[in-house]
Design a protein that fits this description.
Blueprint (H helix, E strand, L loop, with lengths): L2 H15 L7 H6 L13 E4 L2 E2 L5 E5 L5 E14 L2 E10 L2 E6 L13 E3 L2 E2 L5 E4 L41
Antiparallel strand pairs: 1-9, 2-4, 3-4, 4-5, 5-6, 6-7, 8-9
Length: 170
């Protein structure tokens, strides 16, 4: 079992059994696991991100209409099936945050977008692994308050990696 498969199995067990799962009890009763794309090495990158000189604070609207504030950390570019695209990485006191929407949103993936929590490597680069893209908790339960990806992180290309739409009747 790969490291990614182990992480997905752990997440499925957490969703099915943990008191902190975003699933309601009735959802847990029929839950058989989350839906994922197969692992895709072409969507895993070690990228140098040049931080913005002025790392301004930005307010992101949430799924419930609230506001969450993040620091606009830096922008990076990467290839997706021959097309160069760009995303902005955000920072908070909890770490780095990459909310995004791709061309699959609303069809194969959650319509409001998905998230990544990139890790900075010892050499200063970032590991951006779209195989680890996940749905915010508001995809499972509308009582959660989730930041929505800003316009600058809306891609016109599909990112066929990571978590797919949640189907409550799994």
């Amino acid at each position: 079992m790969t490291e990614l498969e182990q992480a997905r199995k752990f997440k499925d067990e957490f969703f099915a059994n943990d008191a902190h799962s975003p699933l309601e009890q009735e959802q847990k009763e029929s839950f058989e696991g989350l839906n994922y794309y197969p692992e895709n090495e072409a969507l895993r990158f070690e990228i140098d991100i040049e931080p913005y000189e002025d790392q301004e604070l930005v307010d992101l609207t949430t799924s419930t209409g609230d506001i969450k504030t993040y620091k606009r950390y830096g922008r990076f570019s990467f290839p997706v099936y021959g097309q160069q695209v760009e995303l902005t990485l955000f920072a908070s006191p909890h770490g780095y945050f990459l909310p995004f929407v791709d061309a699959n949103a609303g069809n194969e993936t959650y319509g409001a977008g998905r998230y990544l929590d990139p890790e900075q490597q010892e050499d200063g680069s970032f590991l951006i692994d779209f195989n680890e893209a996940y749905n915010p908790y508001c995809a499972y339960n509308e009582n959660w308050n989730c930041p929505l990806p800003p316009g600058e992180n809306r891609l016109k290309v599909a990112i066929p990696a990571g978590e797919k739409n949640f189907k409550a009747s799994n």
